[in-house]
Amino acid sequence: MNGALQRAGHGALAGAVGAACMTALRMGAHRAGLIQKQVPQVVEEWMVHRSGRAPRGGPAGHQAASQLVHLGYGAAWAAAFALGQRGGRSRAPLLRGALFGAAQWAFGFFVLMPALGVTRPAWRQRPRELGVNLSAHLLYGAVTALVSEEMQQQRQRTPRSELARRLATVG
């Protein structure tokens, strides 16, 4: 497989994992009373309002749609991020990833979301909203970079013998 295509694929998968981690963080923030809604929910509501079409399935359909949009958005950004990376291990994947997440947060909350009318711009959000959103994006970036790099390292992994599998350290 083409190296760039493989990196993009690994990046997309890593981005979906990173976006899922964001969801867990935001669910915790919601339970703690720090936020009322998650960003993917607000995006999905905006899309429904703009299109005039709601997903099927009632509340479950809305949740599925919001998460699919979020996972897809995270995967697309991460595929682009991975294309800009070299193969091999880097010295600081978590830092590099966190910087990527911070840049994505800045673009989303200072430019994209306000321009589309999805949310208030970052400079008008409450401190706890800023904290949750920036933390979620730092986590997304760090997880995405780590998973993408690890997948690149393991790309030659193939099934081994029965004995090798049984003797492997598994966690």
Summarize this entry quickly:
The protein is mainly α and 171 residues long.
Number of helices: 6
Give the CA-CA distance, first to last residue.
29 Å
Instruction: Indicate the structural class.
Output: mainly alpha
Flag low-confidence runs: none
How many structural domains? 1
The strand count comes to 0
Shape: globular
Features:
171 residues, mainly alpha
Could you outline the blueprint of secondary structure elements for this entry?
Blueprint: H1 3-31, H2 39-51, H3 58-83, H4 93-116, H5 127-153, H6 162-167
Helix pairs in contact: 1-3, 1-5, 2-3, 4-5
Protein architecture, described:
The mean pLDDT is 92. Helix 1 (3-31) crosses helix 3 (58-83). The chain contains 6 helices and no strands. 73% of the residues lie in helices and 0% in strands. The chain has one domain (3-156). The chain has helices at residues 3-31, 39-51, 58-83, 93-116, 127-153, 162-167. The two termini are 29 Å apart. The chain has 171 residues and is mainly alpha-helical.
